[in-house]
Amino acid sequence: MASKAHNTPGTSWWRGGVIYQIYPRSFADSNGDGIGDLPGIIERLPYIAGLGVDAIWISPFFRSPMKDFGYDISDYRDVDPMFGTLADFDRLIARAHELGVKVVIDQVLSHTSDQHAWFKESRKSRSNPKADWYVWAHPKADGTPPTNWLSVFGGSAWQWDATRRQYYLHNFLTSQPDLNFHCEEVQQQILADIRFWLDRGVDGFRFDACNFHFHDRQLRDNPPATKRDNKTVQDTNPYGMQSHKYDKTQFENIAFLEKIRVLLDEYGAASVGEVGDDNSLATMAAYTASGNKLHMAYSFNLLTAENTATYIRSQVEELEAAMDGGWPCWSIGNHDVARVLTRWGGPGATPDYNKVALAMLLSLRGSACWYQGDELGLPEADIPFEKLQDPYGITFWPEFKGRDGCRTPMPWARDLPHAGFSGGRDVEPWLPVPPEHAARAVDVNEADPASPLHFTRRFLAWRKTQPALLEGSIVFLDAPEPVLALIRTPATGAPVLALFNLGGQAVTLELPDAPASQALDGHGFAAAQVGQRQGARFTLPPYGAYFGLASTATAARRP
Q1: Which domain holds residue 431?
Q2: 241-263 tens-digit pLDDT
Q3: What is the pLDDT of residues 370-424, one digit of tens each?
Q4: Are residues 409 and 550 in the same domain?
Q5: Which pTM was predicted?
């Protein structure tokens, strides 16, 4: 087991860092059972290290009935046998550290599985030692649930339990009861479970649904939404019709996040929180303020279908205005949303779209999460209903097809069974490998010097040489769609002017407010894609980008 001495308090690798998300069920299957596992990840760690990322984030691998594929935890301190053993995890930590890669693991704190020993005891009676560890409430006089709160996955957020003759709260599946964080014993137990993984040498945590920890003690009904929330949920889901004033994002959560930070600082570990809220940007700012809560936070604000340069700029500027010393973490793809090539690029987009999307993401102020397979230019997979696994998608089919389309197995080799994800020829993977993914497998990308994979490696290596892109301030310039224009200014040294053509047609534009700049190279865009500057005129090819070292004199006069 690794010791806590591995991490040094005060380290800040995460500032400007790139975190590669691994969905373990779908990354690499080492034993041929059709499901990815920890030994499979270990075998592929050199590939990840070769990308140039700073860390991996591994989605849940803990013991679980897998009703929500690991986000329903039945034991916070053990590895599900499906994924391996604790010894495998220790080997993973050691190997990642040998390769210079930090390890961030998911922590699902707001709720457990209904198969967790804590919940089994809690539901026995109203007087057992863990009776208050979950959110229980009496029905209304007419037998209906205590409040009008809704589950993200559909229906009431309350489930009747015949043994206790009370309702319990579940913000997600009925099999995912919510812990009661108003109970001090729960908080102390959760902190102890976090420490368990810190003692094994993890470098940080991604905290799932981190604004769901507390609920309103008075159990007040949520009011109707004044503006529909389509960022966190699909517009087919009535969850977005409520203003979630009382079922999450309660003020008591701030103090609990401060307790987590004290513990993390003891080990020099980092944190990134997932925020899904009616006003996610304000919550991100609050949860990262003053350097005593989360290190970073991300939301669904760039995980939407909306992809215009104007929209991206508005989200970044709104967060920047709200930030009080905090640090953002931006993401444009993960295990909960359609692949970025399909969701943002659209039907006609080529894998080159992923190049400019990556460059744009890594040029925003903050850190970034990058989802497995997006470096290959994978599109969203079309999974037929009979092969669907996601309970969220099954509930809302066919208007919403769920999250399986982005969770299909990683394609490693075009001509191997299951594209090299699994060696089990006679065992089908838990989700199918689409032919169009096999056609863009790792070995196919490796054979093409102009592939998104090679671009990812080049750009990440180049970015590490640009202090302005790692920690510089950010300001945007007015530019016509689909161009996003920005300036990153480091504490010392020259600013960097960056332009991104997010469209599939060449663009020529005038930018009178752009500072004089000298084109940079080495970032991976071919010379024809860098853009030509004559005065304030730029030409950007389809999905092209321009990076220029700005004159400090003219940059100082920017608006």
Answers
A1: 4-110+183-214+250-461
A2: 999 999 999 999 999 999 999 99
A3: 999 999 999 999 999 999 898 888 898 888 888 999 999 999 999 999 999 998 7
A4: no
A5: 0.95
Q: Give me 48's structure tokens.
A: 């990840």
The beta strands (E) that lie in 247-351 are given as 270-275, 296-299, 329-331
Helix or strand holding residue 476 (H, E) = strand 473-477
CA-CA-CA-CA torsion for 356, 360, 363, 369, nearest 10 degrees? -100
Residues 273-309: tens digit of each pLDDT: 999 999 999 999 999 999 999 999 999 999 999 999 9
Between CA 341 and CA 462 the distance in angstroms is 23
* Catalytically annotated residue among 266, 428, 448, 481: 266
518: which 2 tokens? 């000298």
Active-site residue, selected from the candidate residues 80, 178, 208, 277: 208
Q: What is the largest CA-CA distance in the chain?
A: 77
HEC per residue, 184-244: HHHHHHHHHHHHHHHCCCCCEEEECCCCCCCCCCCCCCCCECCCCCCCCCCCCCHHHHECC
Please name the amino acid found at residue 293: K
**pLDDT band with cut points at 50, 70 and 90 for residue 11:** low
Residue 149 lies in a domain: no
Structural domains counted in the chain = 2
Q: For residue 209, how far is the Cα from the chain centroid?
A: 11
Q: Is 266 a catalytic residue?
A: yes
Which of 428, 461, 494 finishes a domain?
461
Q: Assess if residue 120 is contained within a domain.
A: no
Q: Please indicate, yes or no, whether residues 357 and 448 belong to a single structural domain of this protein.
A: yes
